[in-house]
Design a protein that fits this description.
The chain is α+β, with helices and mostly antiparallel strands and 210 residues long. Helices cover 30% and strands 22% of the residues. The strands form 2 sheets. The chain has a 5-stranded mixed sheet with strand order 1-2-3-5-4. Strands 6-7-8-10-9 form a 5-stranded mixed sheet.
Amino acid sequence: MPNGTENQRFERSLDRLRRAGWEVTAGDPHITRPTIIFTKQPTGFFDSMGSLREDIPFRWSRGSAPRVQTAFAREGLVARVHLAEEDSPRGAVLAGRNGDSDLCRIAQAFEHLEAKGYIAEPDFAFTNSSGWGDIHERSPGADVKAIFWNSQSHIDCFDDDGNLIDDIPLQWSGDAATIEEALRETGLVVDAPQNPKVTFFLGPEGEEEF
């Protein structure tokens, strides 16, 4: 689980969105870029110890629903977002769900891979080709270690709370055994490829092994 109180991790989630070019605001702003909007100041939803007392409602505009959900999951917070909704999308950061989603568990496994030198990015790109293009810009050498999935796979394979409902394909390069070991920490079903030209797949917990 990421370090810090839920309040601190919430703020870090917003910082992730800001670094990705999002605006974070309250009220009804003039929106010209991806924006997450809180109708009430989020500070009032936390107690004196930094724990989330009740769900924090929000909406967003001009941005990707998977990107919002993933930003919170990387800090161990569950964000309920309507992945298929395009008009006036709304969501909430859920109280009492600390780290309690498949997406949160996968994000933690990716963090462990990052510590081993991997570029490990949930919902990294809109397409696989653009994702690989970005990775080769960040790591131009031949020995690339990376793992990611694309936004369409996120929409197809996760529910609104960030739990898997279908097998998600993971693009990868590096050592298959190292990646498999990290992914098995999630408790999800792992289909490890036998050669580097085949993707990894992660399936919902309780599904039969591949």
